[in-house]
Design brief:
Length: 424
Amino acid sequence: MSSPSLLLAAVPGLTGPLAEWQVTAGYAVFAVSYLVFALGKLPGMKIDRPGMAIIGAVLMVAFRIVPAAEALRFIDFGTLVLLFSMMLVVGYLHLTGFFDWVTEQIVTRLKPHHLLPTVIFITGLLSAFFVNDIICLVMVPFALLATRRMGLKPLPYLLAVATSANIGSVATITGNPQNMLIGSFSGLTYRHFLWHLGPVALIGLGLDWLIIHRMCGNDFVPGDAEAVAAVAPHVSTRELRKPAIVIALVLAGFLAGVPPAMMAAIGAALMLITRTRNPRLVYDEVDWGLLVFFVGLFLIVGGAENSGLTRHLFEIAERSNLQNAGIFTAVTAVLSNLVSNVPAVMLLKTLVPAFDDPHTGWLVLAMASTLAGNLTITGSVANLIVVERAHGEVRIGFWDYSRVGIPVTLVTLAVGWAWLAWVR
């Protein structure tokens, strides 16, 4: 019989079982880390989510819960390369004025009654192929500019940007960070992912249009349009040739079955081959905090696995029948709103491979964790970006958002669950 101070279950990657104090420490670090992820910062201190991810990761290694020699095997570099590369690609598009060109082409041709569906479907389409958070940075100024020009109240259109960015991003592996994570661990191809979740995004965008139009009906009456001398900065089409060619190649590679991380890296490398663009400006477009957050999360969840937490989660999953798509959808949506979608996916990804139908499990996880972001104003980073970006002109309150976000979330989750249950 072994000592009671030892955890008897051997863990892959460890030379021996963990001591009881290490197991306790692993659980404590995991619990505190996820509490900070849920609250956004540690009460009374200036520790945000990326900071807590670093601290948690360091503690997992310092307590030898994750052996230093084994730490790298817990980090999925494919996910990091994909996320980093897509940030570089989209950052380069931003600097070359691609999104300004899109704004120029659309705003000058729109009529007031066309604006809402245009905002929803353009935001959703761009978010499907690029990182949705970055698309929100681009589309908020577009929505504000268009509503000023047409004399419309901007609130419904800002809500449309936030909700459609989340909905559209569900369609592909490159739509948002959690999908990149799922794409890496599931082994699903880009085309397969799009085939199964693209219809969910398309139907969801249509429902988003109907719900916002109904809930904000009084805000769509045009008033006095404000004179706008310059609709958007003029962009030379010559400057857009190279990024257009690179983007076409990257998307073609995705659809042809080239591993997304490799194809995105090739695209980023091609973008950086330039004689005129200062690369430091492109690097400034990268969300380094998010990359650090991912690295820390990998090690925190790795420590939780070594501490035996994953085994307990499997037991809870079996008792709760998480393999049921409806139940898994609900659990994922709730957890995503409690701790944010990336930490939720990082935790739940350990359960899906043991499902009887892991293929559907991965798709449900991607669908539910993404669409759940529309529930509240703090449900996703995209929502917070819209609120902060528009703060100087429009205040978006909790109820302003929730009266649209709640019905949009519930309806799209129901559609997503029904669709995946049917196509399975």
